[in-house]
Amino acid sequence: MSVKVAVRVRPFNTREKDLGAQLCIKMDGQTTIITDPKTGNPRDFSFDYSFWSHDGFTEREDGYLLRADDRYADQQIVYHELGEQVLNNAWEGYNCCLFAYGQTGSGKSYSMVGYGANKGIIPVSSEEIFIRINQNPNPNLMFEVMVSMLEIYNEKVQDLLIPVNQRPQGGLKIRESKVTGVFVENLSKHPVSSYAEIEKLMEKGNTNRSIGSTQMNATSSRAHTIFTIEFKQILINNDTKTGKVSVINLVDLAGSEKAGQTGATGERLKEGCAINKSLVVLGSVIEALAEKSSGKDNKKGIVIPYRDSALTRILQNALGGNSKTVMVCALSPATVNYEETLSTLRYADRAKKIKNHAVVNESPEEKIIRELTKENEELKSLIEEAGGIERLRELREMLEANEKFSTAQSMSWQQQREAIQEDFEPEIDRSGPHITNLNEDHLLSGKVVYNFDNVPLVVGRKTGNPKPDIIIANSSVRPRHCTFNKDENENITLEPIEPSCSEFLYVNGQKVYEKVILKHLDRIIIGTNQIYLFKRPGEDSKYKENDIDYEFAMEEKNEAQQLELEKEIPQLPPQPPTPILTKTASIPHEEPKNDIVTEPETHPENHENSAEPPQEPALALEVPPEPEPISKKRQLHSRLAKLFPLVNEANLIATDLSRHVKFNVKIINLLPDEVEKEEDLEPDYWEKELKVEVQNQDYGLIWLWDVEKFEDRLCMLREMLDEQTDPSPEEDPLWDPPEENILGKGYYSLKPLGLLFDNPFNILIISTSGGDAGLLKMNIVPTDEDGNMLDEGPETPEELIGSLINFRVEIHEAWNIPLSHANNVYCEYHFPGLGIRRTNVFPGYSEHPNFNYKEQFTSVLVDDFLCNYMQTKKLAISVFGTGMAMKVETQKNQNQKPTYESAPAQAPCVENVMENRIQRAVTVGNTSNLRQNEGEVGLQRTATTGSVSSKESSKGSGKNAKGGKDKEKCFIF
Ligand SMILES: Nc1ncnc2c1ncn2[C@@H]1O[C@H](COP(=O)(O)OP(=O)(O)OP(=O)(O)O)[C@@H](O)[C@H]1O
Disordered: where is this region (predicted)? Predict the structure, then answer.
């Protein structure tokens, strides 16, 4: 039977409502339709169930969302359709699995666990199990229920039903035996006899998850939780026992954002920290199984990569095996989440193709014990014969795990119940002032509580001396970070322990520089993401407690910090002067006060081709174009406000890890593809993008990372700090193969082509920071059909309309390319109607690549569009190159100066480069095009020497140019 797939769309949340969100999902019977907000194109998907929970409900007094029109699917309907089916299957003795998949905040936990009166599938099914048991009329039929709860975070499996401080460092081991299949070694199983007991255990599991999340740097929404109910029915007939057993796995998966990038392997997985390896592999498993089920399996057979992740190993049975499986895909209704929601629907579409082979698990107990004993005997004899320490160790561990498993298996439910001492933490008194946690996973909020019976309470890391009272393992939290105390009026106060802690201590979004008195429902942020709500029962607040959650507090902080930032940094972009001159000199503007934000400091002075007719003075008084809309500026500020603390945190982690690297925020320009007016070449009018500059402090080299890559790497840095291990280069977030980057764009006037003139010219390559990245010698030569240059052209370009022209694009060479990125340089352009064209790649390192590119185009029709294009637009030529490659022998040697790949040319120091540039610019004969400035990425900091052989380097660089799998030639910070 196939995996059953359900999709469910939730209501808009408050934030989406505030932003005036638009709906992009419709449902019609089993069909779910998603509409692309950009194109208006709908796409249909068909599933076993499409649950509409977006609107059409009323709220009952107890908070239950009740259906008000026929379309609305409330919690009861969803349970009835999915949960009940799971229970029926379990009763028949089938293994069952229910997955919830979807991006963070899409409603997975709402469906699986639920909130308040809106109980989800897990509690309702658990309750129903005992209702059914209690209704059983057969005195010879006995039932045994055991539960376990685990979390998979960063490929580590942890038992959620044991105290956090008893968790094994490396997590629990996943074992596999011929007899039992896959099992988690030492996972505690808890015999339960009522729903209330299950509820208590679930509560305990969530509290442990919540505590666990304060003990790690990363966020908890990237963890998967599996709640397992083992359900046995034993029929006693005279002296014989027969029965059935069913394992019900209820799986709340981590947020699926970015997991759409399924099939990502190798290098991509290195950046997969935020992507979540288990989810990526789950995608691959589903894809492979879907392919297999669709009969596309070729003779060799499709290998299902179960073993590639902890999640898929544990759930192997649920996917394509002995299980009746249901997948609930939670959908956000808002157009802003269109891409993610579409990817969830695609995922769901693939999952429905999986075929499972569920069988009734009848009376396995005695049989399993018998077979396990046999397997253990076999293992023992293998141990005797085994050669090699590694193999011996493996077999011993397997035997030990198997023995523990058979001992547990042979114990009766009653014996196990007696053996396990459920220790529930005593309730903390919340009647007085206290703080309680807010977690991005709503289920984990309110689980961690501290009251102020014993003050002062110091917060810090476990390395703090004296040891703090509240331990938070967040890299942005100092060893002794802040203190909660009581003043003479019984007010609770909070203050940073030293000034540097204020960077990561906020109350209601504002940094805390000195002692503050806390008021009821104040939001306290410690570090980057540990949030607490202060409560003083009985005190009034202008806020309602229900309105405050993790997102609220984060958003509040980001907005407040954004306002602070706007006060500190110059306007982005600066207001253009009025009136604007077309051939204007650079517009002076203030140096940024904040030394982290680096704005483009110069402006292109003159990008005109020499063959261009002089500009009419009339143009000089043109009205300046509208400045960028405020919202874009604010959006940039808002992203900056979010990025700054992360960059600060990355710098703190780098220091803690003794890595000589500094992160800075950079605002770079998105160079335009179409240039029409002079203003189009003013960086002030270009779209801005945020990058993170990564500066190696030993060698002064600089890399620019996308924010997304930075966030992935930060996440890996946090984990490195948590685990305190030396990663291999493949796993090291600060170890990169050389990457291909855009060095800049040059703009070539097509006006001469419109008059059938050639136009040999050295165009300026403008870098993304608005500076220069060298010069490019090129020409477009109008020709006859045989490629011979034409002698004359028309009086006006319009005369060409309707005729066919021939021309040759020549890109000869480039100069002064920033050396640090001058490996495998090539150019690319897009002439309208002729597609994207590329020069050859100039192999190896060269500041002066010679492309020698000539491409003849014949019979190109000049229509109105092309005629107009040639008169008004410039052709953009993009120049790409690959970054510096270095070899590092071992990580231990990282403090030694790395050796470059050999090359004939000296890798120059910055003074030489600038000197050479000036000399060369003079010989180029068009000095007006050369701007001496910060332009190129990392050039002026490339003050290293070394030798680089272009022959040598070109050998490896072919691969590097394509994204670089060549780990040998990587750089380590
Ligand atoms: N069907 C629904 N009806 C009403 N509210 C819903 C529904 N689904 C989700 N919500 C609300 O949306 C918010 C986010 O839902 P939920 O916590 O279930 O998301 P999630 O996908 O589990 O997120 P995470 O990955 O962070 O755990 C919650 O406040 C929840 O109450």
Answer: 570-622, 925-973
Under DSSP, the state recorded for 218 is S
Q: CATH homologous superfamily of domain 4-351?
A: Kinesin motor domain (3.40.850.10)
Coarse DSSP helix, strand, coil percentages of the chain, rounded to the nearest 5 percent = 30, 30, 40
Token pair for 351 = 């999952």
Fold exhibited by the domain 436-548: Tumour Suppressor Smad4 (2.60.200)
Token pair of 708 as six digits = 């997304």
pLDDT bucket at 894, cuts 50 / 70 / 90: very low
Residue 838: burial class (beta carbons within 10 Å; 0-12, 13-18, 19+): middle
User: What would the pLDDT profile of 859-887 be if each residue is shown by its tens digit?
Assistant: 999 999 999 999 998 999 999 998 764 33
Q: Is the CB of 115 under 6 A from ligand 1?
A: yes
Atom 27 of ligand 1, nearest CA residue: 441
Residue 649 Cβ < 6 Å to ligand 1: no
107 is in an annotated binding site: yes
Whether the predicted interface score ipTM is above 0.90: yes
> pLDDT tens, 42-87?
999 999 999 999 999 999 988 899 999 889 999 999 999 999 988 9
pLDDT band at 210 (very low <50, low <70, confident <90, very high): confident
- CA–CA gap between residue 836 and residue 822 (Å, rounded): 22
Q: 116 a known binding residue? A: no
| Coil, strand or helix at 344 | helix
**Domain residue spans of the chain:** 4-351, 365-419, 436-548, 742-882
Q: How far apart are CA 770 and CA 781, in angstroms?
A: 29
User: What DSSP designation does 8 have?
Assistant: E
Q: Is 106 annotated as a binding residue?
A: yes
Q: What is the share, in percent, of the chain residues with pLDDT greater than 90? A: 33
Q: Is the CB of 554 under 6 A from ligand 1?
A: no
Cβ–Cβ contacts within 10 Å for residue 390, how many? Answer: 9
C-beta of 102 in contact with ligand 1 (< 6 A): yes
The reported pLDDT for the residue numbered 258 is 52
The CATH class that applies to domain 742-882 reads mainly beta
* Contacts with 836 (C-beta within 8 Å, 6 or more apart), sequence order: 828, 829, 830
Mean of pLDDT values over 487-491: 93
Q: Is the pLDDT of residue 599 over 60?
A: no
Q: Is 166 annotated as a binding-site member?
A: no
Closest atom of ligand 1 to CA, residue 106: 21
Cα–Cα separations (whole angstroms), residue 74 to 121, 131, 171, 862? 11, 21, 38, 62
